[in-house]
Design goal:
The chain is α/β, with parallel strands linked by helices. It has helices at residues 70-78, 111-124, 138-151, 174-190, 203-207, 231-245, 281-287, 312-327, 330-333; strands at residues 7-8, 14-23, 30-38, 55-60, 81-87, 130-135, 158-164, 254-259, 295-300. It has one domain (7-170, 249-333): Rossmann fold (3-Layer(aba) Sandwich), CATH 3.40.50. The chain starts with 6 loop residues before the first strand and ends in a 5-residue tail after the last helix.
């Protein structure tokens, strides 16, 4: 791979590289993906010395999202893990005019940019382990990609996986899920770009500073009400769910974090800040065992859908859980005795 062309990112202290992916298989022009890197800034360890780089993290966002969670990057950097995040094609920084936000007809199309991003991280940190981290839909995309890589005999250098509220199944009853899946299979052939009427809820309002939340993010890249859900995209997600439910073998240990409760409501209440407003957490618990290898599932009491955007005490708990898991998996952080 040629040397990457790192340019200033919209986040201070970060740089980005754009992967040109060629013609979009779904007919929306030229596709691209954007890899974001946290610049080393001289942060020291507790004793004042520099933190040696022992490994790297590659993070993947969810639907109606992009990478802006700098606290997460700081957490891993403080543990000696160089941090990278990938905005997938038609998402966040990578979406170009005229493209349908987040649309793909098959989640396997993401394999291209995931392979490129992993290759880029390896090029910058040869011989070091890579930890994959993902949120929501990203938490569905990465296990399927890892399973395909393992089946092709490509397992290195990925050493572990951390999933933050992964989307392992559709919300609603089994009957409703099955009926909708059948409808999507037919409708996706006729009108894949057709938007579905999906309740928006108040999740975005709980997060953004303009609505009294704690976080600042670009509302063009992450609208408070989210982007429209399209028929073809949701059909691709349902096919991916079916593949997951058949059982995978991702080849690495995984940590799965979820809230301890779901709360689906279109009106704000105090519970809106202490529950997953997007996914059914019982589905996460049910399907976690489908990943294969060693799987650790930890419910985080009072967590939001993005656990690392939860209230301060809750996310501090989540970071402690991740830290403990990393301590028990020294291969993931490059601290295993050689």
């Amino acid at each position: 791979m040629p040397a990457l062309d790192w340019k200033p990112d919209l986040l201070e202290g970060y740089r980005r590289h754009t992967f040109e992916l060629g013609t979009d298989p779904d007919g929306e022009g030229a596709a691209a993906a954007v890899l974001v890197r946290r610049d080393p800034d001289g942060e020291g360890s507790e004793d004042g010395g520099p933190v040696p780089v022992r490994g790297a993290v590659l993070y993947v966002h969810g639907f109606s999202d992009y990478f802006f969670q700098t606290d997460l990057a700081d957490f891993f950097a403080a543990r000696g893990l160089a941090f990278y995040a990938l905005d997938l094609r038609k998402c966040g920084r990578a979406r170009r005019p005229g493209q349908t936000a987040h649309y793909v007809s098959d989640l396997a199309l993401y394999d291209r940019e995931l392979d490129l991003a992993l290759e880029a991280v390896v090029q910058e940190h040869p011989g070091l382990p890579v930890l994959l981290v993902a949120h929501s839909t990203g938490g569905l995309i990465l296990p399927l990609w890892l399973d395909r890589r393992r089946a092709a005999g490509r397992t290195e250098p990925v050493a572990g996986l951390v999933l933050n509220s992964p989307w392992f199944d559709l919300q609603g009853s089994r009957t409703r899920r099955g009926l909708l899946t059948q409808v999507l299979r037919v409708a996706a052939k006729a009108a894949p770009m057709r938007p579905l009427a999906v309740p928006t809820g108040v999740y975005g309002d709980t997060l953004h500073q303009s609505r009294g939340g704690e976080w600042e993010f670009d509302l063009d890249l992450k609208p408070l009400a989210g982007f429209p859900v399209t028929v073809g995209w949701l059909n691709a997600v349902r096919r991916a769910h079916a593949a997951l439910h058949q059982g995978l073998d991702i080849g690495v240990p995984s940590l799965i974090l979820r809230s301890d409760r779901s709360h689906f409501s279109s009106r704000y209440s105090e519970l809106s800040d202490r529950a997953d407003l997007i996914l059914d957490v019982t589905h996460i618990a049910r399907w976690a065992g489908c990943l294969g290898d060693e799987t650790t599932v930890v419910p985080i009491p009072g967590a939001r859908h993005d656990i690392f955007l939860s209230r301060p005490t809750v996310r501090a708990h989540a970071y402690r859980v991740v830290g403990t898991w990393l301590d028990h998996h020294p291969r993931v952080t490059g601290t295993q005795s050689r």
